[in-house]
Amino acid sequence: MSLLRARLQQELARIRPATILIVEPDPVIAALLCDHLSDYQTHVVGNGRDARTYCQQTPPDLILIDTALPDTDALKLFQQLLPVKFTNHIPIFFLGQLGDDRDQRMKALEIGVDDYISKPFDIVELHFRVKNALPGPAQSVDLVTGMPGWPAIHTYLQRRLTHPDWTLIFIHVAYMSAYHDLYGAIAGQRARRTIATMLHDLLDQLGELDDIIGTLSEPEFVIITASEHHGRMINLIERRFQAEYHNWYSPQEVAVGRVQLPDGRRAPLMTPTTAVVTGRTKTFAATLDVIEAAEALRQQQYPNISDTHVSPFHTIFITS
After folding, report:
1. Same domain, 103 and 216
2. pLDDT tens across 1-45, in order?
3. What residue numbers bound the domain in which 251 lies?
4. What is the rounded average pLDDT of the residues 283-301?
5. Do 262 and 216 share a structural domain?
6. I want to staple 275 with a disulfide (CB 3.0 to 4.6 A). Which of 148, 183, 296, 298 is the partner?
7. Mind listing the pLDDT tens digit for each residue in 254-280?
8. Mind listing the pLDDT tens digit for each residue in 131-156?
9. What is the pTM of this model?
């Protein structure tokens, strides 16, 4: 396993799927709900007493309550769960019975039940109602560039893997940490923002509406596009880098193509190294397979470029 794959795998492992508590005495309906809500962690209890105990110990992210519980009235249980609901911002849905009248539904909604779904319900519709009530999956955003981070890229790419019409351009900016060491953190952040703007301009010019740009770390960027112009995109990236050198380096450094670091080491100028992986020529089972294939291809194509001797610096992400 590559170091890149291991790092991205660890980042995904930190993202916890939402937990749904299903308060349902009918085991057949409970099994149906668990099966169709398999994107989430589900926990089933059959009565109000166990629901209260579970919520006090481990507050879930959403609660589904059948209104025909064997030990308590659903409205009474809802009122008992109000402290947990408001403290942890938990949506609570009622699963009503066949023949429930409008007054019953209105009373539940009036006291604060978030949704009332009567049986027989459409399981697909219920799934969408649950999805819309829950926060989206955790998405990291790079605070320097404003770009999506790996969790967002993973979610987007996972959806695209079901169709072959995608291409991933992997961009590793070699020697970026050397630039950071020489010119400082502020200059390094400014360079990353310039690269982000450069890539956005590129998509505006050659990309499609549903394309995405993101960052995996300070020197690593990805473009996922439906466009077949990836060759032109890479050429434009290289040309834009050449044009930006006079903003990033002194004329002497540009002339010799190298910089001298404070400790006396010499390093080349920042250099974009790229690789292209596409679903049009190969099928991938997982997003990590795509990234690992792109990184392996990049290293193959640039065997003489290595910046492992310079110290890394860290991207600041915010996760919501």
Report:
1. no
2. 688 888 898 888 777 788 999 999 999 999 999 999 988 899 999
3. 140-319
4. 95
5. yes
6. 298
7. 999 999 998 889 999 999 999 999 999
8. 899 876 556 788 899 999 998 899 89
9. 0.68
Q: Is residue 12 part of a domain?
A: no
- Picking from 103, 133, 163, the residue at the C-terminal end of a domain is 133
Report the alpha-carbon distance of residue 185 to residue 240 in Å, rounded: 22
